[in-house]
Specification:
4 copies of one chain form a homotetramer.
Chain A: H1 5-18, H2 21-25, E1 29-34, E2 37-43, H3 57-73, E3 81-91, E4 99-109, E5 113-124, E6 127-141
C-alpha cells in the first residue's frame, strides 16, 4: 500500500492536533481538513462560557487559531511547522447553541508568511450562525529549510 | 456598615468573574483589580498547550480578553455590562513556564466604546516574560442607560 | 419627480465623498456603490509610493477605510453618520501597477456597530491583484437617533 | 572623520524617508529618530481631511506605518529592509488641530519579525492629544542575509 504525500501530510496534521492539550480541554475534533482549509468542532459546555452564558470569546479564538494554523500546515510539505504571529477577531453575534466550530482558510501563502481567514460559528436549533470573524498571520517554517 | 461605590463595583466584578465557566476551566483567579486595570492568573497545565508544548495562543487570548473586559468594567458604574467587539493580539515569545497571567488596562473610555491594552506574561524560573501583547475594543452598556 | 429613499441615500454618500479632502489628494473617485458595498479607485502616482516604489500601505489603508465607511453608510438611512472605530489590514503582495482600488463590504450591521471587510487591489498589465485585505469596525449614528 | 555604525544607520533611514512619495505628499518630516523609535510630523491641511473635517484615519495610518517601519529599521544593520506585514489601529479621539504626528516604537525585535507600537497625536491650542493607537508587524530583511 502506498501513502501519497498528501495523505501523509494530513496524517501529520492529525497527529499535531492530538498533541494539543487545549484541544483536549475543549473536547474538540477536526471535522474537515483539506488543502488550505481546516475546521474544528466541539460541543458547547457550561465551562466554556463567559459571564452572560455565551461562549467565551477566547474559546472561539482558541478554535479559530488552531483551525488557521492547520489550514496553513495543510499546504506546506509534511514536517513543516507553523507559529501564530498575530490574529485579530471581530465578535459579531452572541455565541450560543449546542455546537461550536472554528474554521481557518488560507488566503495567501508566501515564502514565510501565510495569511488566513478565521471564522467561528455556533449551531442553535440546527441553524449555524457566524459569531466571530477575523484574520491571522502565520509564520511558516517549511520542512527542509533553515529555522528562519 | 457602609459599602462605598467603588467597593461595590469591585464586588460586582468578582461576582461576574465567578460566573465565567471559562475562568473555572483554566483555574484562573483575579490577582489584581483596580480602577482601569485587571490581572488574571492561572497555573500552567499540560491541557493548556498547543502542539509544541507552549501555552496555546487562544488560552492567552482568553485570559487577556477577560482581563480587558474587567478593566473596562472597573471604571463603569456597578450594574454596567461589557461586550468584546474585537481584539487583536501579537504573539511575541513562546509562552512557557509555570504561571500564566493576562493583564488588561483601559487606554480610553468613551461614551460607548472602551479601548484596552492587553498583555500576557508567563513566569519561568521566577522571571516574567511578555509573550503576547495587543488591543481590544469593548462595547459598554452603562448601568441606567438604554441598551445602546 | 420623486426621489426614493435609496437614491437619496446614494446621493448623500457621493456628497460626503466630495467633502473628503483626502480623496481629492489621492484623486480618487467612487467607481461602484451599491447597498452594502463601495469601491474607490485612483490612478497610481509617484507621490503615493513608499521607499521601494510600491504604493504606500497607508494610501491603501486610506482608500480601504473610506470604502468601508461608505459601504456601511449605504445600508443606513440618509442623514446617518459613521466613524471608524478601528481597522486591521494585512499586506499580502507588493502594490504595483497603474491603478489602485479600495473595496469595502458590510459583513454585519448591528444596532450601533458595523463590521466591514476591506480589500485593496492594484492593476498591472490589465490584471488585478489583491495586495491588502482586512477588517474594520464602524460606529454608526443612525439618522433620527440620539448621538449614541 | 569617522562615521560610526549608528550614525550611518540613521543617515540610511533619512535617505529612505526622502524616497517615500507619500511622505512628500503629506509634507511630512522626521522629527525624532533614535534607536527603536521614530516620529514623523506634518502640518494639518484641508486635503488631509475626511468628511467631517477631521484628519482622515488613513492619513494617520500612513504616518504611523512609516514611523513604525523606521523604528524597526533603526535597530537593524544599515542596508536592511523592512516590509509591513499588517497593522491594526484604534481611533480614539477626533483628529483635529494644526499639527499631526505619527510615532513608532519597537516593542519586540525577533529574528525576522518586529512588533511595533504605533501612536498618532494631533496638536490643538498647543496641546497634544492621542487620537489613534495600534500595533504593527514588520518583516525584517537584515543586511547580509538571504532574502528570507
Amino acid at each position: 500500500m502506498t501513502v501519497d504525500n498528501r495523505t501523509r501530510n494530513l496524517a501529520h496534521i492529525r497527529a499535531s492536533f492530538r498533541s494539543e492539550g487545549a484541544m483536549r480541554l475543549l473536547r474538540a475534533r477536526i471535522t474537515r481538513l483539506e488543502r488550505g482549509c481546516a475546521e474544528i468542532t466541539a460541543k458547547n459546555q457550561a465551562v466554556l462560557s463567559q459571564q452572560d452564558g455565551f461562549v467565551h470569546a477566547g474559546v472561539l479564538a482558541t478554535m479559530m487559531d488552531s483551525a488557521g494554523g492547520y489550514a496553513a500546515l495543510s499546504v506546506l510539505p509534511p514536517g513543516s511547522r507553523v507559529l501564530a504571529v498575530e490574529f485579530k477577531i471581530n465578535f459579531m453575534a452572541p455565541a450560543v447553541g449546542d455546537t461550536i466550530r472554528g474554521i481557518g482558510t488560507v488566503r495567501r501563502m508566501g515564502k514565510r508568511i501565510a495569511v488566513c481567514e478565521l471564522e467561528a460559528k455556533t449551531r442553535k436549533n440546527k441553524t449555524w450562525i457566524t459569531c466571530a470573524w477575523g484574520s491571522q498571520t502565520v509564520y511558516c517554517i517549511k520542512a527542509g529549510e533553515a529555522n528562519g
